[in-house]
UniProtKB/TrEMBL annotation:
Gene Ontology BP term (one): ornithine biosynthetic process
Protein species of origin: Paenibacillus oryzae
Enzyme superclass (EC): transferase
EC numbers: 2.3.1.35, 2.3.1.1
One MF term in the entry's GO annotations: L-glutamate N-acetyltransferase activity, acting on acetyl-L-ornithine as donor
Cell compartments where the protein resides: Cytoplasm
Stated role: Catalyzes two activities which are involved in the cyclic version of arginine biosynthesis: the synthesis of N-acetylglutamate from glutamate and acetyl-CoA as the acetyl donor, and of ornithine by transacetylation between N(2)-acetylornithine and glutamate.
Residues of the active site: T196
Site (Involved in the stabilization of negative charge on the oxyanion by the formation of the oxyanion hole): T120, G121
GO cellular component: cytoplasm
Listed name of the protein: Arginine biosynthesis bifunctional protein ArgJ
Length: 409
């Protein structure tokens, strides 16, 4: 991503920012013994922001979390369960989400409105609240400010994910070291129109809730909103950010000299997590990146990039290592954006397959070897203006069908 005003902390985590602890445990929502209940706790009221799914059917925890953040823009904790989405569960589901909030708030000694709630898993089943209650009562003792606590939390939020997803960076603002970290889960039902399946950002930067909300939305639009695995937008998508302010920097504002550095760090954290979700797509064997340039605007380039990355035919061709550029240009042409049909270039990595919308002779064997790799970059140049965008996804494999044909069983 070029020279950045921050550095990646290799052993960093969501507990690296000052004031944060995390943890997880198995309470019995999952059939396996893998953790299924976790939390992030801040020792002080943290400025909070959130973005949520645009799916009309929104899970009960989203209502609770929106309400918590809207009350005064502050959070002390977020409580998360996996194994059950608590979505399409009616009044009982709402009551259960509110009980989760109030019970955990009591367990950690804070006001209920200072707790956010998130859930992920099977839609349409009521939570086994006796198990959740027991887990909540034991969870505060599991929260630690070290890497073990962060990893336990990351395990607790997984469903069909194969790997945990976490990243941390640090930068200097006003002579103070500031951390920005994130964790996420997501593997299937990924085509966000807000964020990801579930994402959590922690930072010790001093920033108010309103400006954090603005920066989080901007970062989301360039990262989580630019990934797709299967074209399905979940009922539970949620991204929550918490800022403890304990780094001691001068509070960030739109006029702060360090605003661009902080915004870049936040975008980087969100992009790394978004790409990790795309790479971990259900059944996936490859991360696919689409880079569009030369569009009439960035928004137009984004629409084209996401159309190409979401094409089942493009995804299938990548899985089969088939350099079928026809599927790519077809997706470009149906994106509903201005395109000159005589000026499009397409390349797979550095292998040019189309120039000026005309086929170019290329080495099929070299293309085959490139497409067999674990990362495939598709370049599309429209030669119209200056608009650019990147989108990320994965190949479509036999295993995706196998996993989702038996998701509940």
């Amino acid at each position: 991503m070029g020279q950045q005003p921050f550095r990646v902390v290799d052993d960093g985590s969501i507990t690296s920012p000052k004031g944060f602890s995390a943890g997880g445990l198995h309470c019995g929502l999952k059939k396996t013994t893998r953790h299924d209940l976790g939390a992030i706790l801040c020792e002080v009221p943290a400025a909070a922001a959130g973005v949520y799914t645009t799916n009309i059917f929104q899970a009960a925890p989203l209502k609770v979390t929106r309400e918590s953040i809207a009350s005064d823009g502050l959070l002390r904790a977020v409580l998360v369960n996996s194994g059950n989405a608590n979505a399409c569960t009616g009044e009982q589901g709402e009551a259960d989400a509110y009980e989760m909030r109030s019970r955990f708030a009591e367990a950690i000694g804070v006001e209920a409105a200072q707790v956010a709630v998130a859930s992920t898993g099977v839609i349409g089943e009521n939570l086994k609240m006796e198990k959740v209650r027991s887990g909540i009562d034991s969870l505060p003792q599991k929260l630690t400010g070290d890497l073990d606590g962060a990893e336990a939390f990351c395990q607790a939020i997984l469903t069909t994910d194969l790997v945990q997803k976490m990243v941390c960076v640090q930068l200097e603002l006003n002579g103070k070291i500031v951390h920005v970290a994130g964790a996420a889960k997501g593997s299937g039902m990924i085509h966000p129109n807000m964020a990801t399946m579930l994402g959590f950002v922690t930072t010790d930067a001093a920033i108010d809730s309103a400006y954090l909300q603005q920066l989080l939305r901007e970062a989301t639009d360039l990262s989580f909103n630019m990934i797709t695995v299967d074209g399905d937008t979940s009922t539970n998508d949620m991204l929550v950010a918490m800022a403890s302010g304990l780094a001691g920097n001068e509070a960030l504002t739109p006029e702060h000299e360090g605003k661009e550095a902080f915004a870049a760090a936040l975008r980087y954290v969100c992009e790394v997590l978004a790409k990790a979700i795309a790479r971990d797509g259900e059944g996936a064997t490859k991360l696919v990146e689409v880079q569009v340039r030369g569009a009439v605007s960035d928004e137009s380039a984004q629409a084209i990039a996401k159309t190409v990355i979401g094409s089942s035919l493009v995804k299938s061709a990548v899985f089969g290592a088939d350099a079928n550029w026809g599927r790519i240009i077809a997706a470009v042409g149906r994106a509903g954006q201005p395109v000159n049909p005589d000026t499009v270039d397409i390349a797979l990595g550095d292998i040019v397959t189309l120039q000026g919308s005309r086929p170019v002779a290329f080495d099929e064997d070299a293309a085959l070897e490139y497409l067999k790799g674990d990362t495939v970059v598709i370049h599309v140049d429209l030669h119209m203006a200056e608009g650019t965008a990147k989108a990320w996804g994965c190949d479509l494999t036999y295993d995706y069908v196998r996993i989702n044909a038996a998701y509940r069983t």
